[in-house]
C-alpha cells in the first residue's frame, strides 16, 4: 500500500488478488464472523428494533429533505456557542481550510480522532504536503498509519491485520514517529494496547491542535457527538487548545430527541454493545474547559449531488456502523482495499460511485461488487436498500442517465466496455420476447449438445475455471410439453 | 382454480426435469396445471445487470401469457421475487420517465398477487406439507438469498422436506450465506464468486449428505458445478424433484428421469 487509493485497479482485478491471500481471508473471516454473531445477539435484545430502525430511517429522510434548513440552523447554533463554521464544497477545499486553520495556530503537529470524513478527503496527505504532521490516535488507525497502509474497514480500519502483524509494525515503526515500542513486545492484546497508550500519551500531552470528525451534529443546539471505544477521541477533543471538526453535511439531526434513536441503533449495530464506552459531546467553546477555539468544517464533496438522486440518496442515511461490511460475503473475500475508497463493503459500493461519479474504471466497477444477496439491507439499522441502489447505479453505468454533478444537471454517457454486453442483452431481450426465436435457440443447443464444452473460452472462461457447466438436455421443457401434451389449450 | 406453470428460461432450457417434477407433483395433488407457450424469461438477468428498459416488454409478456390463470407457480424463488418485488418498480420508474402509461403498471399489478414460488403455493394455497413424497436419501437444504430475504420463505421448504418419507435432513453450516452465484456477478467477479462457491461446497460436504437441495436451479447450477469440478459425491437436486419422487420411482429409478440424461 502506498497510502493512496488513487490509480487502483477495478474491483474484480483487486479482488482476484486478495482472494488468493490466505492470511487476509483468514483474518477477515474470523473478525467479521465474530462481530456479526455478536451484533445479532445485541440486536435481538431489543424487541422494538424494527420500529427503531424505521424511526432512524424516517428521521434521516426528513432531515435530508430539509437539509438546507437544518444546516443553516446548525451554523447559527454553532456560531452562537462560540464556534466558527466553514463550508467546503469538495475534498480539496476542506483540506485547504484545515491546513490554513492549523497554520494560523503556528503549530506543525496535530492529533487526530478517527474520522471517515478526513479519510475521504485524504487530509493527512494534504497536511503533510503543507508541512504538518497528523498523528492518528485511534488504535487501529495508528496501526494503519505506522504500517504506511490504508484502512480496510469503517470501524476496524486494521481488520486485515492479525496480532502478530501488529506487533511487528509497532516494533519496526513506532520509533520513527515518537516513543518506540518495548523491545520485548509480545502479541498479547493487553501488551499491544499498552505500547500504543504510552506512545500516544506523549502526543496527547504536547498537541495544541486536535482534528476530529463527528457521528452526529444536533442542529438546534450546535452540539457535535463522537462515539468511540477507546477514549482517545475524548483526549483529542478536550486537551488541545484548538479543535477542528470536519463533518459531512448529512450528519446533522434536528434535535437531541432524534439522537436518542441513533444512540441505540449505532452501538448495537457496530460494536454489538448496548452502549458505546465513550460518548463525547461538544458545543462551541466554554471558558476554562476544553479547546479555546472551535472550527466546524462542513463537507459536501458530492453529497448534495447524491441528494438530487431520489433512489440513490438513501445512501446518505448511513451512520457508518459497518454492519453491512461484516455480513457481506463479497467484502469477506475481497477485503476492504479492493473497493479503492475510504468506504469499503456494500455501503462503499453505493456511496463511492455517487460521491465520486462513475467515470473511472474502478468507480464504474463498484456497483457490480455484489451478488445482490441482500444481507446488507437486512442488517442496516437505517434500512438502506443497498441492492436497490446497486441495481440503480448499474443502470447508470451501462446505460448512462441523468445525474447532478456539482449542482448542475447533466446527462451521463454509458461507461466504456459494455458494448458487447449491451448487444448480448438486447439479443436475449429479443429472444425472450419472441418465443419462436427462443425455441429455435434451444433446439439448436439441444442438437449440438454433444459438442458443448464443459469449459468455455473467452469471457466465459472465468466461470468454467472453477465450475462445470451443466450439460444441455436433449429436449427443452417446452418441447417436452408440446410432444406429450400438445399446444396449450385455451382456457 | 386455474393454475399455470411458469417454468422460467433456465429451467426450460437446462433443467426440464424440474419443470416435469412440478407438473407431476401438482397433478398428484389434484391440481390441473397449464403451460402457456407465450411465456419466457422474467427479466431478472437484464434487470440486475442494469438493463431495466429491456425488461418492460417481458412484464407485458408475463401479463399476457398468464392472463387466463388465477395462479402462476414457479420453481424458482428468484424469478418469483423478480415478479413480485421488481415488476411494480419497473412500471413506476417507466412511468416517471414518461416511457409508459398505466398499461405497464396494470400488467405489473396483475402479475404480482398471483405469482407464487412452488413451496409457497404448496403450503399457503394448497395448505399441504405432506405431499406424499418418498426420497430415501440424506439431504441438506440451502436457503437461497432470494428465497430467504426477498420472498421470506422462512421454514416452508423445510416443513415440506421434513414430511418426505425416507428423507433425512442434515443441517447446513452457514446456511444463510450466499453461494456466490448472483447471476452476472459470477462472470463479472469470477474470483470472489468462485471463493464463495468453494466455501458453500465445503459446507455441503461437511454435512455428509448425499444431496444438496434448493428452491432455485441457478444457485444449484453454481453449487453443483463447483462440487462436480471438485469430484465431490454430493449431488444437486431441486426441491421439486424431491417432492415429486415416490416409492414407485425408488423401485424403478428410470421413471424419475423420464428423458435421457439428468441435466447436471
Ligand atoms: S449502510 Fe447501513 S449497515 Fe452499512 S454502515 Fe451504513 S448504516 Fe451501517
Automatic annotation (TrEMBL), chain A:
SUPFAM superfamilies: 4Fe-4S ferredoxins (SSF54862), NagB/RpiA/CoA transferase-like (SSF100950)
Residue ranges of every copy of the LUD domain listed in the record: 71-285
GO molecular function: 4 iron, 4 sulfur cluster binding; metal ion binding
Lactate utilization protein B C-terminal domain span: 393-483
Ranges of residues in domain 4Fe-4S ferredoxin-type: 315-384
Signal peptide start-end: none
Gene3D superfamilies from the UniProt entry: Alpha-helical ferredoxin, NagB/RpiA/CoA transferase-like
Record's keyword terms, sorted: 4Fe-4S, Electron transport, Iron, Iron-sulfur, Metal-binding, Repeat, Transport
Keyword Repeat: yes
One of the GO biological process terms: lactate metabolic process
Pfam families the record matches: Fer4_8, LUD_dom, LutB_C
PANTHER family: LACTATE UTILIZATION PROTEIN B
Protein name: Iron-sulfur cluster-binding protein
Protein source organism: Streptomyces chrestomyceticus JCM 4735
Automatic annotation (TrEMBL), chain B:
InterPro entries linked to this entry: Cys_rich_dom (IPR004017)
GO molecular function: oxidoreductase activity
Residue ranges constituting the Cysteine-rich domain according to the UniProt record: 3-83, 139-223
Signal peptide extent: none
Source domain of life: Bacteria
Any one GO CC term of the record: cytosol
PANTHER family, per the entry: LACTATE UTILIZATION PROTEIN A, UNCHARACTERIZED PROTEIN YKGE
Name of this chain's protein: Fe-S oxidoreductase
Amino acid at each position: 500500500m502506498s497510502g493512496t487509493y488513487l490509480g487502483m485497479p477495478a474491483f474484480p482485478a483487486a479482488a482476484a488478488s486478495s482472494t488468493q491471500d490466505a492470511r487476509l481471508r483468514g483474518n477477515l473471516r474470523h473478525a467479521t464472523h465474530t462481530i456479526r454473531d455478536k451484533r445479532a445477539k445485541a440486536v435481538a435484545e431489543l424487541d422494538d428494533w424494527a420500529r427503531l430502525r424505521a424511526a432512524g430511517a424516517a428521521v434521516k429522510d426528513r432531515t435530508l429533505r430539509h437539509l438546507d434548513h437544518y444546516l443553516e440552523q446548525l451554523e447559527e447554533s454553532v456560531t452562537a456557542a462560540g464556534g466558527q463554521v466553514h463550508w467546503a464544497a469538495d475534498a480539496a477545499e476542506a483540506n485547504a481550510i484545515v491546513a490554513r486553520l492549523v497554520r494560523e495556530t503556528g503549530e506543525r503537529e496535530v492529533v487526530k480522532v478517527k474520522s471517515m470524513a478526513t479519510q475521504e478527503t485524504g487530509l493527512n496527505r494534504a497536511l503533510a504536503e503543507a508541512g504538518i504532521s497528523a498523528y492518528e490516535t485511534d488504535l487501529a488507525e495508528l496501526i494503519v498509519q505506522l504500517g504506511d497502509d490504508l484502512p480496510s474497514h469503517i470501524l476496524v480500519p486494521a481488520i486485515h491485520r492479525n496480532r502478530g502483524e501488529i506487533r511487528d509494525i509497532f516494533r519496526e515503526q513506532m520509533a520513527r514517529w515518537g516513543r518506540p515500542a518495548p523491545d520485548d513486545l509480545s502479541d498479547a492484546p493487553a501488551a499491544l494496547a499498552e505500547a500504543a497508550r504510552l506512545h500516544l500519551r506523549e502526543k496527547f500531552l504536547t498537541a495544541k491542535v486536535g482534528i476530529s470528525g463527528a457521528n452526529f451534529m444536533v442542529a438546534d443546539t450546535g452540539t457535535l457527538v463522537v462515539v468511540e471505544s477507546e477514549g482517545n477521541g475524548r483526549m483529542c477533543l478536550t486537551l488541545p487548545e484548538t479543535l477542528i471538526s470536519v463533518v459531512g453535511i448529512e450528519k446533522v439531526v434536528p434535535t437531541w430527541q432524534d439522537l436518542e434513536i441513533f444512540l441505540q441503533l449505532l452501538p448495537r449495530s457496530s460494536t454489538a454493545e448496548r452502549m458505546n464506552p465513550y460518548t463525547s459531546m461538544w458545543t462551541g467553546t466554554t471558558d476554562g474547559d476544553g479547546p479555546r477555539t472551535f472550527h466546524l468544517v462542513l463537507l459536501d464533496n458530492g453529497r448534495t449531488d447524491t441528494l438530487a438522486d431520489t433512489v440513490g440518496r438513501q445512501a446518505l442515511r448511513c451512520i457508518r456502523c459497518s454492519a453491512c461490511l461484516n455480513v457481506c460475503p463479497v467484502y469477506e473475500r475481497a477485503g476492504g482495499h479492493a473497493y479503492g475508497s475510504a468506504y469499503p463493503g456494500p455501503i462503499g459500493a453505493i456511496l463511492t460511485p455517487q460521491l465520486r461519479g462513475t467515470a473511472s474504471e474502478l468507480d464504474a466497477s463498484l456497483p457490480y461488487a455484489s451478488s445482490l444477496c441482500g444481507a446488507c439491507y437486512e442488517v442496516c439499522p437505517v434500512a438502506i436498500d443497498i441492492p436497490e441502489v446497486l441495481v440503480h447505479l448499474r443502470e447508470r453505468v451501462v446505460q448512462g442517465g441523468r445525474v447532478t454533478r456539482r449542482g448542475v444537471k447533466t446527462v451521463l454517457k454509458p461507461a466504456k466496455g459494455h458494448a458487447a454486453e449491451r448487444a448480448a442483452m438486447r439479443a436475449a431481450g429479443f429472444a425472450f420476447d419472441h418465443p419462436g426465436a427462443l425455441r429455435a435457440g434451444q433446439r439448436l443447443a439441444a442438437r449440438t449438445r454433444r459438442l458443448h464444452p464443459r469449459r468455455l473460452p473467452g469471457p466465459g472462461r472465468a466461470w468454467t475455471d472453477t465450475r462445470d457447466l451443466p450439460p444441455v438436455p436433449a429436449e427443452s421443457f417446452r418441447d417436452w410439453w408440446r410432444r406429450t401434451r400438445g399446444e396449450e389449450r385455451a382456457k | 382454480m386455474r393454475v399455470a406453470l411458469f417454468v422460467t428460461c433456465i429451467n426450460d432450457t437446462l433443467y426440464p426435469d424440474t419443470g416435469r417434477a412440478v407438473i407431476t407433483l401438482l397433478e398428484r395433488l389434484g391440481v390441473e396445471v397449464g403451460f402457456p407457450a407465450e411465456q419466457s424469461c422474467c427479466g431478472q438477468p437484464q434487470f440486475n445487470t442494469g438493463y431495466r428498459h429491456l425488461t418492460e416488454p417481458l412484464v407485458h409478456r408475463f401479463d399476457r401469457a398468464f392472463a387466463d390463470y388465477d395462479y402462476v407457480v414457479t420453481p424458482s424463488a428468484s424469478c418469483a421475487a423478480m415478479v413480485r418485488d421488481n415488476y411494480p418498480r419497473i412500471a413506476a420508474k417507466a412511468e416517471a420517465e414518461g416511457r409508459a402509461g398505466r398499461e405497464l403498471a396494470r400488467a405489473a399489478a396483475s402479475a404480482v398477487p398471483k405469482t407464487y414460488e412452488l413451496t409457497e403455493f404448496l403450503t399457503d394455497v394448497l395448505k399441504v406439507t405432506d405431499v406424499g413424497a418418498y426420497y430415501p436419501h440424506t439431504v441438506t437444504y440451502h436457503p437461497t438469498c432470494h428465497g430467504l430475504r426477498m420472498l421470506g420463505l422462512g421454514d416452508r421448504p423445510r416443513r415440506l422436506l421434513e414430511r418426505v418419507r425416507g428423507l433425512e435432513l442434515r443441517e447446513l453450516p452457514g446456511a444463510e450465506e450466499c453461494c456466490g452465484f448472483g447471476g452476472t456477478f459470477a462472470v463479472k467477479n469470477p474470483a470472489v464468486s468462485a471463493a464463495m462457491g468453494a466455501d458453500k461446497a465445503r459446507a455441503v460436504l461437511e454435512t455428509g449428505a448425499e444431496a444438496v437441495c434448493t428452491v432455485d436451479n441457478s444457485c444449484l447450477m453454481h453449487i453443483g458445478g463447483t462440487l462436480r469440478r471438485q469430484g465431490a459425491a454430493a449431488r444437486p437436486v431441486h426441491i421439486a424433484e424431491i417432492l415429486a419422487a415416490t416409492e414407485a420411482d425408488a423401485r424403478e429409478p428410470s421413471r424419475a428421469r423420464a428423458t435421457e440424461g439428468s441435466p447436471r
